[in-house]
Each structure stands twice: as structure tokens, then as C-alpha cells.
Amino acid sequence: MQPSSIPNRIPSLIRRIRARFQRTYYFLRGSYWLPHVPLSLLLCLGGWWILDNKFGSSWQIYVHQLAQGQFNLPPRLFPSLFIGGGMFVMGLALLWRSRLAWTMAILLVSLGLVNTLLIVQAHEEAMLGYFAFALLLLIWNYRHFSRSSVAASTLFAVTSVVMLLTYATFGAYYLGQGFQPHITDLPTALYYAMVTMSTVGYGDITPHTLKARMFTISVIVLGVAVFATSLTAVIGPLVGQNLQRILNRKGTPMHREKHFVVIGNTPLAVNTWRELARRGRHVTRIVREQPEEGLPKDVDMVVGDPSMLDVLREAGAHRAEAVLAMLADDSENAFTILAVKELNGVARTVAAVNDARHLSRVKLVQPDVVIAPQVLGGELTAMLLSGEQVTPEFVMERVFQNTQTTPKNS
């Protein structure tokens, strides 16, 4: 083999590896569990590692002391308790692909990395590398966590309140000599924490030392912030989803049968929807998010993830004449076509391709028609500049590429 031929073989090798990876991804239905399930396990494992490294088997002793009201947890273990426990909860929340859970996971992993870095020892270097690797993976996959989930937001709210209540209760217990009267047991500390967090302030227990006063100020500030953030996190998605349902059902109910389903908010999807509607055809649009500019009242629209079967059923994709996947991401178009086929309906499937390198991979999911208008641009430009003849038949053959020899009966 000539040395000069090695650089030429590298791009070909990369393409073959990428194509094999894509085929494996489609076969394993990666859109249903990648990357949120592995990242969830990664975060939960990191939380368990922190807690096991700091507590080991001694956690049973602390639980027994807590049951007797004689909890003596060293203050140096509090950061590990909060970070490890938070990782467990946010790891579960990542299963909903929530952006809020992803943000909290980034924060907790960063705190875990800093906490480990400050006290790094020979046996903790592996933990340092683990958290650095987890942080890179979370940042790399940020696009996969874009949902506003009520379940994940509720989990975040409950976790925030519990962590703040734990901080306020044990903080008041440790600083008990700085209050008047002194706080000498956990029930009294819990009572003071609840009264302070809610900003009620009966005045029966008051801070008298500087540390106790600064601690009380921190509990008040954090209490207001946590309650405000938690209410926003829970109520925001809930109100938004209900508002979207109201807007989607506004006006005359749509008859979703023998219609067209156009998926996406790209220029191609918008123009296709407008042209079909102009010709008097009933069109249902599927978009991931409610458009900010708004739409006319008579537009039939479903908001949700187009690769989810429930969203496709709501749009009547199983009773449609044709389903057109016209998203900006070619892999999402392929996953959507696979989901439509799972419905076992009569609809013809059309997949848009935005990148010529993905054309063969999209064809692997066997849509009835592959439309690639952007792929045609370079070839037409070269033909026109070269003086070659461009015929309508050539344009139609390049733009619409049938992947099946016989059409599907509608």
C-alpha cells in the first residue's frame, strides 16, 4: 500500500463506520433509550459512588441515631450527602429528557467534580475522571434534553424542598446554642426550620449569635428562592401543556381521516402545508413546540414529539393518506418513518433528506418516497454552468426518489 493512499482511505473508513453505527442505532431503536437511559444510570452510579465513599456501612449508624433524635453527622459530610442524593434524584428525572433535569445534573456533576478535586487522594483519582467524563457526556448530548416535563419538574421541586429542609433543620440543630431558647433536639430544629422557611416567624425562638443570625438569613433567602423556583418549574409546564391543548382544540373539531400529516417547522414543511391547504386538502401539522408567531384558527396542529406513537395517533397518522417527515434532522425523519410504520396504517410515507451523505441511510427505513430538493442544488448548478441540458424528467427523478417499486394501496 502506498503511503500517499492512506489519507485517502481515512474518510472512506469513517463513512463506513458511521453508516454501520447508524444501522445499529436504527436496529436497536436508539431513539427510545439513547442517550437518556445510559446518562441516567451514569448519574445514579456517580451518586452511589459518592455516598458509598463517604459513608460506607456507617449510614446504618446515622439512621439509627436519627430515629432516636440523636443525629451527630459531621458537617464535612453534608456536601457529599446533598450531592450524592441529588444525583440519584436527577438521574431518575433524566429519563423524561427534561431540560430542567439536565441543567440540575450539570450543576450536581460539576459540584461533585469540585468536591472530589478539593479532597483528592490516590484512591479518588478514578472518581475525578468519572465525573469529568460524565460532565462531557452531558454537555455533548444537550440537544436530546429539550422537553418541559411536569413529572421531572415535580421531582425537582420536591428534591429542592427536601434538601433545603434538611439544611435548615440540621443547621439549626448544630447551631442550637446560638438561639434563645436553645435548640437541643431535632423536632424543635424542624419546627424552627419550617417557621423560618415559610417566613412566618412567630418569635418564640430567636437567633442571638452572629452565626445563628447569618444562618437564619440564609434559610429565609433560600426558602423564598426555592419555593418560587419550584412553583415556576411545576406550574409553568402544566399551564403550558394545558394552554397548548386548548389552542389545539380551538374552533371546529377536525376530521382526521384520509388527510395529510406534515411533520416539522422547516421551510419545506411550511410551504408543503400551505400548498396542500391552498388546494383544499385537509392537513394536520405536527410540531415539537407551539410556534411563537401563532397560526390561523383553522390550522389543525398537534404539538409533541413526532417519533412518539401517541402523538402520531392523535394526529391520525394511522388513518392518513400520507405522512410527510420534513424535520431539519435527517435521523429524526428516519425515526419518525419507523414510528409511522409501527402504526400499521395505510398512509404513504415521505421522508425529506437535507444532507446528501444521509440519503442512503434514510432509505434503509424504506419510506415510500424520499424527497431531496437541497441535494439537487449542486448537481443542477454544475450542469447549467457546464452547458448540459436539464430536463423536467431529470429534475423529478432527482428530487423525488422512490424507494419501493410498487405504490402502497391507500
What can be said about the biggest beta sheet? Answer: 7 strands, mixed
Identify low-pLDDT runs.
Answer: 404-410
Query: What's the domain count?
Result: 3
Span of the ends, CA to CA: 55 Å
User: Could you state the CATH homologous superfamily of the largest domain?
Assistant: NAD(P)-binding Rossmann-like Domain
What general form does the structure show?
elongated
Total DSSP E strands:
9
Provide the CATH top-level class of the largest domain. Answer: Alpha Beta
Strand-residue proportion: 5-15%
Corresponding CATH architecture of the largest domain: 3-Layer(aba) Sandwich
Main-sheet strand order equals 5-4-3-6-7-8-9
Which structural class do you get from the secondary structure elements? alpha/beta
Radius of gyration: 29 Å
Order of helices and strands: HHHHHHHEHEHEHEEHEHEHEHHE
| CATH fold assignment of the largest domain | Rossmann fold
Q: Give the helix tally.
A: 15
Percent of residues in helical segments?
Answer: 55-70%
| Mean pLDDT level | 79
